[in-house]
């Protein structure tokens, strides 16, 4: 069973030092790719480096609405040059936010920065990962004016209304689901999920945020997570033990870090609400993500080409070389 984490932040300062272990353990669990999204000019080079270092990392560059005020006068030229030097990259994280944190950032400023990045994504024919909090009406209006998007856009950690799904889907949107979905009532979440076309469903972790609620005590923890330090009486071993003895329910500190392997918990939750089995949804969401991230210059296209060449060479070789996998 293969999974594709369609949106995460493995370059986040809270987990960057643990990235090698997080990636290797997530890969071992069945996660074969991670779309790692930058949030400001300050972390784009770090994301680029991760893309070079890890075959499983798809780098993405963008200015998140929370960091709009921090942008430099040259931000757009810098962004364009990042894509010129990194053809494997997609666009993200970009978006609009009218939530408690987003309200601190001038909204017309957010709109201007978002629109320019969205137009760039369309011009480059690359998918863009979009953050939207309490601004779905504005988002629909802007995407309608800029779209449609043949290369797709990702409504990451989607928590919008079921009624808006067809409008966004018509423009080329994919809908990605994380642990944040568990904050919505099951009835509302189920209605919304059922409205999403099956070829537009994606799964993500938004790691290190969006820790899913665990019903079975099977969460992965980030080693050294400050919120789980023994002096706080919250070591991961204790929590796992408590979860087992309490039938799987788990009370975790709000700031607990989310491990990218926890996409398995998201998979199980979304599959249950869609009345699908885990394997079926894993295959569906993986296929959708591979299609979306197979833009010109992408790692997925390069890997496919390399595999085709390798297969062609093996088929015409007189000596059989066993695969290392």
Question: Main β-sheet, in a few words?
Answer: 8 strands, parallel
Let me know the CATH homologous superfamily: Metal-dependent hydrolases
Given as residue ranges, the uncertain stretches (5+ residues, pLDDT < 50) are 240-247, 316-325
Strand order of the largest sheet: 1-2-3-4-5-6-7-8
Per DSSP E runs of 2 or more residues, the count of β-strands stands at: 8
Strand content: 5-15%
Distance between the termini: 15 Å
Give the C-level CATH assignment: Alpha Beta
Q: What does it look like?
A:
Helix content is 41%, strand content 13%. It has 325 residues and is of the alpha/beta class. It has a single domain (3-225, 256-307), classed as TIM Barrel (Alpha-Beta Barrel), CATH 3.20.20. Strands 1-2-3-4-5-6-7-8 form an eight-stranded parallel β-sheet. Helix 9 crosses helix 10 (278-292). It starts with a strand and ends in a 10-residue tail after the last helix. The model is unreliable at 240-247 and 316-325 (pLDDT under 50).
């Amino acid at each position: 069973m293969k999974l594709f984490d369609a949106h995460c932040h493995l370059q986040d300062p809270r987990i960057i030092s643990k990235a090698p272990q997080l990636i290797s353990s997530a890969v071992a669990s069945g996660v074969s790719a991670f779309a790692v999204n930058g949030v400001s000019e300050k972390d784009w080079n770090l994301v680029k480096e991760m893309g070079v270092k890890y075959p499983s990392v798809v780098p993405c560059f963008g200015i998140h609405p929370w960091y709009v005020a921090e942008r430099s006068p040259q931000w757009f030229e810098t962004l364009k040059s990042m894509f010129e030097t990194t053809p494997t990259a997609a666009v993200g994280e970009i978006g609009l936010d009218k939530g408690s944190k987003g309200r601190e950032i001038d909204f017309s400023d957010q709109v201007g920065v978002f629109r320019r990045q969205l137009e760039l994504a369309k011009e480059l024919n690359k998918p863009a990962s979009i953050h939207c909090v309490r601004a779905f009406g504005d988002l629909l209006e802007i995407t309608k004016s800029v779209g449609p998007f043949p290369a797709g856009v990702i409504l990451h950690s989607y928590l919008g209304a079921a009624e808006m799904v067809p409008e966004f889907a018509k423009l080329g949107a994919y809908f990605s689901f994380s642990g944040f979905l568990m904050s919505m009532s099951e009835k509302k979440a189920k209605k919304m999920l059922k409205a999403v076309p099956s070829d537009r469903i994606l799964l993500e972790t938004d790691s290190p945020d969006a820790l899913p609620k665990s019903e079975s005590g099977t969460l992965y923890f980030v080693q050294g997570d400050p919120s789980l330090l023994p002096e706080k009486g919250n070591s991961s071993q204790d929590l796992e033990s408590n979860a087992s003895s309490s039938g799987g329910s788990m009370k975790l500190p709000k700031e607990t870090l989310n491990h990218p392997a926890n996409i398995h918990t998201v998979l199980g939750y979304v599959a249950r609400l869609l009345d699908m089995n885990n394997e079926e949804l894993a295959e569906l969401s993986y296929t959708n993500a591979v299609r979306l991230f197979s833009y010109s210059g992408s790692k997925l296209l390069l890997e496919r080409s390399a595999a085709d060449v390798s297969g062609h060479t093996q088929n015409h070789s007189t000596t059989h070389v066993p695969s290392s996998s």
